[in-house]
Design brief:
The complex is a heterodimer of chains A (113) and B (114). With 113 residues, chain A is mainly beta. In chain A, 0% of the residues lie in helices and 58% in strands. Chain A is built from no helices and eleven strands. Chain B has 114 residues and is mainly beta. Classes of the chains: A mainly beta (113), B mainly beta (114).
């Protein structure tokens, strides 16, 4: 069964600090991996997408990495801001069929001033 | 910009009531999804529609049904609401079946069944 595991479950950091969120998956055959940001009371919004051949992709202060061999991804947030407080969800899609994505349970990030 | 709207942000219903949750997207997307999101469990797929009048069960379809009569609208129906259906419901749309295509989410409906 396809699975996506995220760690940590929650994280508290001070404004201005960096942090890294982890995602491990067993989805096969791999198609792509997305990181979504979900603000409280809102729907998730895509931050980045990574395919098999991509190792690193940046979106402003967000940098995602992918190691397709170990089936791991990370999301690094640089110089955190209060607005980064949100849930970050790792989503992996397998090739074939209806391309139904598999969602991780998310990491809840709180940035304190 | 893609816009996915849901009929209500908050809804309170009684046990046994029939509940309709509506979702509308304005970008001519073929695929639409209904998820529920519970603390600690993440998003779980209830139903998926890949085109008008087409639907597939997701991971947790029990107690739910769906309707897709028009391309832009996807309805989730709780035939007889129960307290264990209290949750956040999220609708999403996607252009079509394909590996890299982004899902666009609505703001969610927080349903409370008393």
């Amino acid at each position: 069964k396809n699975q996506v595991e995220q760690s940590p479950q929650s994280l508290i950091i001070l404004e201005g600090k960096n942090c890294t969120l982890q995602c491990n998956y067993t989805v096969s055959p791999f198609s792509n991996l997305r990181w979504y940001k979900q603000d409280t009371g809102r729907g998730p919004v895509s931050l980045t997408i990574m395919t098999f051949s991509e190792n690193t992709k940046s979106n402003g202060r967000y940098t995602a990495t992918l190691d397709a061999d170990t089936k791991q991804s990370s999301l690094h947030i640089t110089a955190s801001q209060l607005s980064d407080s949100a849930s970050y969800i790792c989503v992996v899609s397998a090739k074939g069929g209806s391309y139904i994505p598999t969602f991780g349970r998310g990491t809840s990030l709180i940035v304190h001033p | 910009d893609v816009k996915v709207t849901q009929s209500s942000r908050y809804l309170v219903k009684r046990t046994g009531e029939k509940v309709f949750l509506e979702c509308v997207q304005d970008m001519d997307h073929e695929n639409m999804f209904w998820y529920r999101q519970d603390p600690g469990l993440g998003l779980r797929l209830i139903y998926f529609s890949y085109d008008v009048k087409m639907k597939e069960k997701g991971d947790i379809p029990e107690g739910y049904s769906v309707s897709r009569e028009k391309k832009e609208r996807f309805s989730l129906i709780l035939e007889s609401a129960s307290t264990n259906q209290t949750s956040m419901y999220l609708c999403a749309s996607r252009f079509s079946v394909g590996g890299g295509l982004e899902q666009y989410f609505g703001p969610g409906t927080r349903l409370t069944v008393t």
